[in-house]
């Protein structure tokens, strides 16, 4: 696999991100020195409008990320300023300059110091200490790791296609089957990336699961000649099923039900799409209804005008008795 091709793709991606950040930071408006006019405001808002297909996923991802960042900030503040042995008044006086004093007081007296919150904090701490499998990917999200592995796989497939084009058809087929049989699947690479620590070792439980992933891979290759098991299915087989959460794949990952039907996340997307379609149809119906009413009123008005003209004409020629 060519590492130069992967580096080129990552460099292009980073260049696009820098360009996007630069565009987002431009707030110069020629229309007014005091701020943007109405058209400019709409054009600025349009940059953050997403399509119906991708909008739900992006909106959910942004909400999860913002919630995570907010929670982590609170955790860092609590670790730096709050403790059981420290006097609450001292904590209040140590309010950071970047935080409003009223909000700081709420954090101390109405959140961190509540008995219910203290009990939850102790339970979460015990759960964290009892974890048998620790993450080894640091601050990088599992979704980002999956994306990078997909880039590597794409670069590898492009390289194999170029090699196959340079050889005849028979050697091409042999090379492809060997690569599929001998290459590690995505789920095995992902487990290594996220669970193998810098010293090259797994935690005891993580190593057991790693061996189970390898057995699954060997079984698929032995039975079908190639491993086509997806990451979601492989993780569910090895780590087990949990309703509403994809084990080992991080927050926000789409979850399938036990029978591999759409899970809650996918159903939420479907519900939003159906609601949008329903709103569109309702708007069209209301538009047609208003248009029909308008045409009826115009027809009625024309009929009244014609009757009035006919009455005037009949009065002029002395035909009142015929009306």
UniProtKB/TrEMBL annotation:
InterPro entries: Ribosomal_eS7
Coiled-coil regions, chain positions: 264-316
Ranges of biased composition (kind: Basic residues): 7-22
Entry keyword Ribonucleoprotein: yes
Region annotated Disordered, chain positions: 1-25, 154-184
Superkingdom assignment: Eukaryota
Secretion signal span: none
Keywords, ordered alphabetically: Coiled coil, Ribonucleoprotein, Ribosomal protein
Keyword Ribosomal protein: yes
Low complexity bias: start-end ranges: 166-182
Family under the similarity heading: Belongs to the eukaryotic ribosomal protein eS7 family.
Stated name of the protein: Uncharacterized protein
Source species of the chain: Spinacia oleracea
Gene transcribed to yield this protein: LOC130472114
